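Hey team,

Filing this mostly as a record. A colleague (T.K.) asked me to run one chain through the structure pipeline before their review meeting, and I want the input and output archived in the tracker in case anyone asks later how it was produced. No errors, nothing strange. Just documentation.

Input sequence:
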Amino acid sequence: MNALWLTSWYPNSSDRYKGDFIQRHAFAASLYNRIQLIHIEIAERNSLTTSTEITETTNANLHEKVILIRASGLPYPFNKAADYLHYLLTFQKHIRRHIAQNGLPHIVHVHIAMKAGLAALWIKRKWHIPYLLTEHWTIYNSTAPDRFEHKSFLFRYFNRLVVKNAAMLLPVSNNLGDAIKQKLYPTTSQRVLNAVDTSLFYYQPSTNKDSFLLLHVSVMNAQKNPEGIIRAFAALHKTNSHTRLMMIGPNAPGVAAMPEKLGLPPGSITFTGEIAYAEVAACMQQADALVMFSYYENMPCVILEALCCGLPVISTWVGGVAEVVNTQNGYLVTAGNEQELHGAMLEMITHYNRFNRKEISDAAQKDFSYQTTGAAMSGIYLSVTGRGNTE
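Output structure:
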């Protein structure tokens, strides 16, 4: 089948990590169908030398067209209206061009309702082609600072319109799907989990025998609460000096200064800064457990990746985490409760032998691989279009 993907977030020259989880979904879907992807991004005026920058990439059945357009530069609020109009007109132009060259797609697949969903709504009304909506955004979480209820009236109106007109909602967690259906519209939904590149993230026996290595991977912002992890680890280290903590993510000076302030010995906590995706996988294979202490989440890719490496996980009981972390592969704690986190770390070390890393990896590889996720999307495409196995 031919599927046209319209994405609100996607890796691009100005932000190579933005929506990288959507790109992994695209890789997964392209195993079974022809995926033509269009992404429009409004870029800062000084970041582009021309008014438009277009990058096209073809990888087997996946064709990516990423278009950066220069922001208007008008004063607020006129810039918002001008940029939105430019965004939508650019989307329409490139969709028309795509259809002229390739014909009508069988299905349209939107990733994140706002703003790409407005282009899908236009396609549905003009050519009567149904669209699916995969949502990843944490704004539907009631504890998120930028939650849906705090968005503008126009944002909420059009977001609800996109959800209401989708043929099916494909949230990355049931928790997220339930929140969207409760707050926006009670549409039909089916969970499609985030996908993991299992050629990188797989079980390999660790050669680390000198210490118990806890691993944290994030962007180190307030949502991820790295400070809470460090404080809980400092309490753990007082009675378990053989433990170490590795923090992978962008350098955050305030966070990096904490170990010395808490009196932790040098080397007990390592800050790697940003490292390549393959290096993250290698670090996971050498670690003993993953620690996440977020205040809110949907379905963190890093947890799925850790499980594919056979790492047991300590995480907060937020979003859809409890849908993948259970007593067989980790511990769940209350968001913000550092005593619980310290207790879970101690429990992990004390009873580590009860976790079978190979079994954890085998189960995760089965559930989160590109093959599994791609097959799930392919089945939904066939069901929604009514094409069955006749194609």
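Quick notes for T.K.: The chain has two domains: 2-195+369-385, 212-368. The longest strand covers residues 34-43.
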